[in-house]
Design goal:
- This protein is of the alpha/beta class.
- The chain has nine helices and nine strands.
- The chain has a single domain, classed as Rossmann fold (3-Layer(aba) Sandwich).
- Helix content is 32%, strand content 15%.
- The strands form two sheets. A seven-stranded mixed β-sheet has the order 3-2-1-4-5-9-8. Strands 6-7 form a two-stranded parallel ribbon.
- Strand 8 and strand 9 form a beta hairpin.
- Helix 1 (28-39) runs parallel beside helix 9 (217-230).
- The termini are close together.
Length: 232
């Protein structure tokens, strides 16, 4: 039986527009799905809009946010090398994958929403009935994806993603380029969030899986693996 193939898309952006603060990928939103897929023997491709270096949000490396799984990978030189040499989306756009996963971090708010190559990959993936998954700010990569009939992919879909109150708790409201929660609702999404902010929340709507925040990383990986196993 052939190996399942997973594409994990990450950001190339390392700072906010104000230049005051560094940002990038939120590490746990990559490590948990990567670890789960690796344990299953999946073929994993890490790609970014431009390819090359994947910056890590320094906030995700702090003692209270760097969980054991993330710490293990962060201390692995071969994994760090992978993050310095991501494939470009253009280079892998014609490849078929069983799952496409959009990892988050505030950097994604700048290079995910308007990337037309990413939009094409997601549209083809979704319309072929295969899994599209996104977590936290990575959900912003779904905002401008249109299906072949011209409608937005997000219209009437049950989804979640980092909400505006959580942005307050993260002290980033004045830094972010837009309000993700409001933008998702503007696209007609049926947006849901956890009753308690900054707690794990994952939603499955057909072949679309979304996670609310970094604290959803572990549950998200579990749910994605379960969904992929059930569709074999």
């Amino acid at each position: 039986m052939s190996l399942l193939k997973m594409l994990i898309i990450v950001t190339n952006i390392d700072h906010y527009a104000s230049q005051k603060l560094d940002t990038g990928l939120w590490l746990s939103e990559l490590t948990h799905i990567y670890h789960a897929a690796k344990e299953k023997g999946y073929e994993i491709t890490i790609a970014s809009p431009n390819g090359g270096n994947v910056p890590i949000d320094p906030e995700s490396l702090k003692r209270f946010t760097l969980d054991n799984v993330s710490k293990e990978y962060w201390n692995d030189p071969s994994f760090r090398a992978l993050l310095k040499n991501s494939k470009s989306l253009a280079a892998i756009s014609g490849t078929a994958f069983d799952a496409v996963y959009l990892a988050g971090g505030h950097g994604t708010m700048y290079d995910f929403p308007n990337d037309t190559t990413m939009q094409d990959i997601i549209r083809r993936q979704y319309e072929s009935g295969k899994m599209v998954a996104a977590i936290c700010h990575g959900v912003g990569g779904l905002l401008n994806v249109k299906l072949s009939d011209g409608s937005y992919l997000l219209k009437n879909k049950k989804i979640t993603g980092f909400n505006w109150f959580e942005e307050s708790l993260a002290r980033r409201k004045k830094e972010v380029p837009f309000n993700l929660e409001a933008a998702l609702k503007e696209r007609g999404a049926d947006y849901k969030k956890a009753f308690i902010p900054m707690t794990s929340h994952v939603i499955v709507d057909g072949n679309l899986v979304t996670g609310q925040n970094p604290f959803s990383s572990k549950e998200m990986a579990t749910v994605v693996m379960q969904e992929l196993s059930s569709k074999k």
